[in-house]
Amino acid sequence: MKLAKDYIRKNSISFDKIFEVKKKRYEKIFNYLNENNYLNKNSKFLEIGSGTGPGLVYFLEKKYTIVGVEPEDESINLSRAKLKENGYNKKNIVFKGFAEKLPFENSSFNVIITKDVIEHVADIEKTFEEIERVLTKSGVAYIECPDYWYPYE
């Protein structure tokens, strides 16, 4: 946790600004899910590759249950620091893990979000098998990845 606090202390202005910009990008995801009737008040979210936590904070502020899985220790520490700063003190919001081996039981989530993650996984087939395994039968997976052909496409 010391690394996270030192990083935030040294880079608080830029880190906070980046965090808020990233958090606002989740509004697009929320609107898509809401407009297409994928959400209800009991929806349980998983974010694969939750990074420093902007998506976690965004959906917690919307009063949803969400957990994240993240492979990078420094990102987990930064995420936990930001969650605490925003009033979310539970340790069981961010888990260390990989998309190819999710640390959750079958059919645990109604909504799974992966944002700019799929292109980084070691085994994409195993990742999709894991998403299918932990997603409820009526659930939805929101998968966003960069368009590497932009602006040429």
Polypeptide structure, described:
The chain is α/β, with parallel strands linked by helices and about 150 residues long. The protein is built from five helices and five strands. It has helices at about 1-10, 10-35, 55-60, 75-85, 125-135; strands spanning about 45-50, 65-70, 95, 110-115, 135-145. Strands 3-2-1-4-5 form a five-stranded parallel sheet, with helices on both faces. β4, α5 and β5 (about 135-145) form a beta-alpha-beta unit.
Distance between the terminal alpha carbons, to the nearest Å? 43 Å
Number of strands: 5
Shape verdict: globular
Q: What is the beta-strand fraction?
A: 15-25%
Oligomer: single chain
Structural class by sheet pairing and helices: alpha/beta
* Overall helicity: 40-55%
Runs in which pLDDT lies below 50 for 5 or more consecutive residues are none
Radius of gyration: 15 Å
Mean pLDDT: 88
Question: Order of strands across the widest beta sheet?
Answer: 3-2-1-4-5
List the topology elements.
Layout: H1 2-10, H2 12-35, E1 44-48, H3 54-61, E2 65-70, H4 73-85, E3 94-96, E4 109-115, H5 124-134, E5 135-144
Parallel strand pairs: 1-2, 1-4, 2-3, 4-5
Helix pairs in contact: 1-2, 1-4, 2-3
